[in-house]
Amino acid sequence: MGFLLVFLSVLHILLWIVLLANWHYLRKQSRSIQTDSTWPKLSVLIPARNEATNLNRLLPTLLGQDYPSFEVIVYDDASEDATPVVLRRYSSDPRLRVLRGEGMPPGWVGKVHALYQATRRARGTLYLFLDADTELLHPKALRSLVGRYQAATPGAVVTALPRLRGGGQLLVSLVPLMILAGLPWPLVRRVRHPLLAALNGQCWLIDATTYHRLEPHRQHKNEVLEDVQIGRYLKKHGLTPVMLDLRQEIAVYMYPHLKAAWQGFRKNAYLLMGGRVLPFILLWIGYGLTFVWAPLWNWGFLLSIAGLKLLVDRLMGYPLWLSLLSPVSHLLAWILQFDSALTHWRRRVTWKSRLVT
User: Fold this and answer.
1) Residue partners of 183: CB distance under 8 A and separation at least 6
2) What are the beta bridge partners of residue 251?
3) Contact 253, 166 (CB under 8 A)
């Protein structure tokens, strides 16, 4: 028991160190922005399957950008809702192009295939990959994003910490905690190993020439967790992922309610925790000890997990009640992780009315 107490104490200290280091890293990155008057042509690439509600929110904010030269390509992946109707509503704007798919071929995941097909038609020198549930928060958001990309370390690929809105916040609010306390971003460019890298698939930006040289979507065509794998793949080939604080530029409405959040995270949680039986069991036990059971044994651990969540929640603009319920969030996440593992082991992972595995 003494060894376990020491181990958990060290682990909590490391979580605090990573979180505070990442906070400083984001503030430093936010001060770097290129204000050059020359702006590259930008292709904004969006996968869409049954995204009528989200596209109604995204497209007006995207087409209302004052960025000098950009195109928007939406790949409608055989949607069964009103997505085609929404896209026709905005079809008079010449910057919008809609591609209609009839599903993905064998060996491909739907989102990866949609984005790969969109890149076949893109004409820009920069590619911005956006999820359909995003929203640009002001007309200069694209200028800000591209300006920061231009100011980033040469040979970098840029990804984002957006503002997360919508429902299911007991689970969704753990996403920024995972981003900010789970990966030491200051070390990503200092440590060469590709395992120390990731992307946030909701928003990332890359040079078109580099993209087509490496073709990351084709290389990871059957990955449900494609953003993490692509981040590692790009780093292996010399591109350093850079995380930017884009909470003032981009919002993401991940899920409308807790049930949808549970279904969405169920397809990813097992993969995030190793994707194999033994690594998952070890990480699942470790998560339970760190965030669920240790706070029941010791007030210090309870204050630690509450403090970590409180700091991240303040950064993200979440209400205080959500921070106070951090033990509930972690308990739900722990149960969800096991549910995700069972679903993967039974090969019953579904999303958007499709079998994923």
Assistant:
1) 18, 22, 196, 198
2) 135, 163
3) yes
Average pLDDT for residues 53-80, to the nearest whole number? 96
Residues 163-216 pLDDT 10s? 999 999 999 999 999 999 999 999 998 898 988 899 999 999 999 999 999 999
Q: Using CA atoms in the order 340, 346, 351, 352, what is the torsion angle rounded to 10 degrees?
A: -150
Cβ-contact 195, 120 below 8 angstroms: no
What's the token pair of residue 135?
């929203």
Distance, in Å, from the CA atom of 144 to the CA atom of 203, rounded to the nearest integer, reads 14
Q: Pick from 329, 334, 331: which is nearest to 283 by CA? A: 334
Q: Are 82 and 73 in contact, with CB atoms under 8 Å apart?
A: no
Residue in 247, 21, 26 with CA at minimum distance from that of residue 144: 247
End-to-end CA distance of the chain: 40
- Answer for the pair 341, 284: CB distance below 8 angstroms, yes or no: yes
The model's pTM is 0.93
Residues with Cβ within 8 Å of residue 299, at least 6 apart in sequence:
none
Q: 226: Cβ–Cβ under 8 A, 6 or more apart, which residues?
A: 109, 111, 112, 201, 217, 220
Place of tokens 């460019």: 189
Cα distance between residue 126 and residue 215, in whole Å: 14
